[in-house]
Amino acid sequence: MEIEDIITLAIETSCDETSCAVLKGGREVLSNIISSQIEIHKKFGGVVPEVASRKHIESINLIIQQALDEANITFDDVDLIGVTQGPGLVGALLVGISSAKAIAYALNKPIIGVNHIEGHVCANYIDHKDLEPPFTSLIVSGGHTYLAQVKDYNEYELVGRTRDDAAGEAFDKVARSLGLSYPGGPLIDKLSKEGNPSAIDFPRVYLESDSYDFSFSGLKTAVLNYLNQAKQKGEEIVVKDVAASFQQAVIEVLVEKSIRLAKERESRKIVMAGGVAANEGLRNMMEQRGREENIEILYPSRVLCTDNAAMIGSAAYFNHIKGQISDYHLNVIPNLELKG
Ligand code: KG4
Ligand code: ZN
Fold first, then answer.
1. In a domain, 150, yes or no
2. pLDDT for 193 beyond 90
């Protein structure tokens, strides 16, 4: 069998999406079923871990079967099993890992534990068939914010990270303070298109001049203070202007640090990943700066930006061909870091 013909069954249950995908090689998606729990968690204003685990248990077998059916294969056709090992919610991750181990054991096929953040980066290999490392990557999700130099398919140099809130977390918290529902990122994105990004001068936090780290909690506090002061003074709050001004403050810093790193490393490509990479303002500004600096900007389609199993399948494949293998002792690591 050719290595590109390897069929991978991948499972992702790190947060509030139960997802299973089938891939051929590292880039061709035969199916990618995503069952979102967002409607259930919405009424609590965020993900409730216990509820998430229970919902994963209820739907995982169904989702796996759907993924096989849509790919038009059976378990017998599967060569490799990939599963998210971390980071994520411990109970939620356990559901995916247990299912994946059971399948691997029953089929006597190799299993690979995948780092969820690496999965986000690998979503780009699916949508950009010619993309190969090395490149600069901005990884912005609900739980993580990283700037990295991707040296090889499974080799990452972490250059910057958030010192407090993740970018997506900042979007969600600010959205909540504006009375918007969970998850707030897409809603702020939408409102920003109508609002004035220069209406309020929120702080751009660059930290030390040579630092590639991020900090978003001060910006979040600045928005809260602005809202409280406006309320106290009885001034009208124009939600779309607050949203647009906040978004502008976040994306300017994300874009400028990414461009600076790419230039410093003489990298001609910036590859974005994670839920916040779906943000239209971020995509537009990064593309504009990319044109000015002659740097190519890539990001996955919207559905592959947010959590899905196809990206986990791609990461499993590339780690597999680099010789990585897990065994049946594979366990969840809720605070798993991206390997440097
Ligand atoms: O990568 P992801 O699906 O899950 C994690 O691994 O955390 O990211 C979810 C995050 C949420 O914070 C959500 O608000 C944010 O991505 N997000 C967005 C957009 N779409 C999703 N943030 C800004 N603009 C968007 N269009
Ligand atoms: Zn994610």
1. yes
2. yes
Task: Provide, rounded to the nearest whole percent, the portion of the chain with pLDDT above 90.
Answer: 92
Same domain membership, residue 219 and residue 243: yes
Least confident span in 8-17, 35-44, 113-122, 232-241: 35-44
CA of 186 to the centre of ligand 1 (A): 7
Phi, psi of 153 (to 5 degrees): -55, -30
Residue nearest to atom 23 of ligand 1 (CA): 185
| Residue 326: inside a domain | no
Q: Do 105 and 174 fall into the same domain?
A: no
Check pLDDT > 80 for residue 340: no
Residues 115 and 52 occupy one common structural domain = yes
Phi and psi based region of residue 274 (left: phi greater than 0; alpha: psi -120 to 50; beta: remaining): left
| Domain assignment present for 330 | no
Q: Flag whether pLDDT at 6 surpasses 90.
A: yes
Q: pLDDT band at 42, cuts 50/70/90?
A: confident
> How many domains is the chain built from?
2
What is the average per-residue pLDDT within 191-213? 96
Structural domain that includes position 239: 133-301
Q: Is the CB of 141 under 6 A from ligand 1?
A: yes
CB 137, CB 272: distance < 8 Å: yes
Average pLDDT, integer, range 64-68: 98
CA-nearest residue for atom 13, ligand 1, is: 185
The best mutation among 14, 89, 171 to test binding of ligand 1, ranked by most ligand atoms within 8 Å of the C-beta, falls on: 171
The verdict on residue 282 lying in a domain is yes
The response to whether residue 25 sits with its C-beta less than 6 Å from ligand 1 reads no
CA 202, CA 164: separation in Å to the nearest integer?
18
Nearest CA to ligand 1 atom 14: 185
User: Ligand 2 mean position to 46 CA, how many Å?
Assistant: 15
- Where on the phi/psi map is residue 254: left (φ > 0), alpha (ψ -120 to 50), or beta? alpha
Same domain, 156 and 289: yes
162, containing H or E segment: none
Give the domain CATH number at 70: 3.30.420.40
The answer to whether the pTM exceeds 0.90 is yes
